[in-house]
Design goal:
The complex is a heterodimer of chains A (111) and B (119). With 111 residues, chain A is an all-beta fold. Chain A has no helices and eleven strands. Helix content of chain B is 0%, strand content 54%. The chains are: A mainly beta (111), B mainly beta (119).
C-alpha cells in the first residue's frame, strides 16, 4: 500500500543546532516533493520544492535533499531558533494523479 | 496573509443543520482545493477544482458538497454531518498546468482554515 512517513511525531533540539527531519515514502513515484511549515491553528505555509532530478535545494537556513533510490527526503534547518518551532509537513505529487501530505513532525527548538 | 481567505473561521453546527464554508483567493490561481485536517491525522485532500471543473474527489461522503462558481471562489456545503466530521477544514489554491507538471510543480497557498465542530 502507499505510505508517507515522517521520522518522528515530535523532535526536540537545542537552539543553534541543525534540525534534520525525514520523509520516507512507499509505492509512490513522485516527480516533485514539497515541504511546508504549519503553526497551531493555521494553514500550512510553503517552504521548498524539489524535483526528482535535483539532489539538493537550499533557501537561507533551509536545505532539502531528495533521494529517489532510497525514497527519502531530508529537510535540514541550520542554526535553529525557537521561532523555527512548528510542525513540518512533506507532501508529494504522484505524477499528477494526486497530491498527498505526510503526518508531519512537530519540531521544538529549546532556548 | 497568503491571499486566500476563509469564512467563517469557527463554526458549530448540529447534525441536522445545513451550512456552507467559503473560500476566496486573490492570487489569480486556476486550481483550488479543500482539505480536512483531523487531530492526529495527516491532511486529507477532499476535492480539487481546476479551471472550475472538479478534477478529483477522494471518495468523500456525499454530505460534503463542493461548488466552484468561478476560479476565485470555492464553497463546501455541509448537511447532516456526523460528530467525526469535526475538524479543521482548509482551502488552498495554486497554479495548475498538466503540461508543466500537474499539482506537484506548484506551491499551494492555504487559507487560515475553518474550525468545525459538529454536536
Amino acid at each position: 500500500s502507499q505510505k508517507i512517513e515522517q521520522n518522528s511525531e515530535a523532535l526536540n533540539i537545542q537552539e543553534g543546532k541543525t534540525a534534520t527531519l525525514t520523509c520516507n515514502y512507499t509505492n509512490y513515484s513522485p516527480a516533485y516533493l514539497q515541504w511546508y511549515r504549519q503553526d497551531p491553528g493555521r494553514g500550512p505555509v510553503f517552504l521548498l520544492l524539489i524535483r526528482e532530478n535535483e539532489k539538493e535545494k537550499r533557501k537561507e537556513r533551509l536545505k532539502v535533499t531528495f533521494d529517489t533510490t532510497l525514497k527519502q527526503s531530508l529537510f535540514h534547518i541550520t542554526a535553529s531558533q525557537p521561532a523555527d518551532s512548528a510542525t513540518y509537513l512533506c507532501a508529494l505529487d504522484n505524477y499528477g494523479q494526486n497530491f498527498v501530505f505526510g503526518p508531519g513532525t512537530r519540531l521544538s527548538v529549546l532556548p | 496573509e497568503t491571499g486566500v481567505t476563509q469564512t467563517p473561521r469557527h463554526l458549530v453546527m448540529g447534525m441536522t443543520n445545513k451550512k456552507s464554508l467559503k473560500c476566496e483567493q486573490h492570487l489569480g490561481h486556476n486550481a483550488m482545493y479543500w482539505y480536512k485536517q483531523s487531530a492526529k491525522k495527516p491532511l486529507e485532500l477532499m476535492f480539487v477544482y481546476s479551471l472550475e471543473e472538479r478534477v478529483e474527489n477522494n471518495s468523500v461522503p456525499s454530505r460534503f458538497s463542493p461548488e466552484c462558481p468561478n476560479s476565485s471562489h470555492l464553497f463546501l456545503h455541509l448537511h447532516t454531518l456526523q460528530p467525526e466530521d469535526s475538524a479543521l477544514y482548509l482551502c488552498a489554491s495554486s497554479l495548475y498546468s498538466r503540461a508543466s507538471g500537474g499539482y506537484g510543480n506548484n506551491e499551494q497557498f492555504f487559507g487560515p482554515g475553518t474550525r468545525l465542530t459538529v454536536l
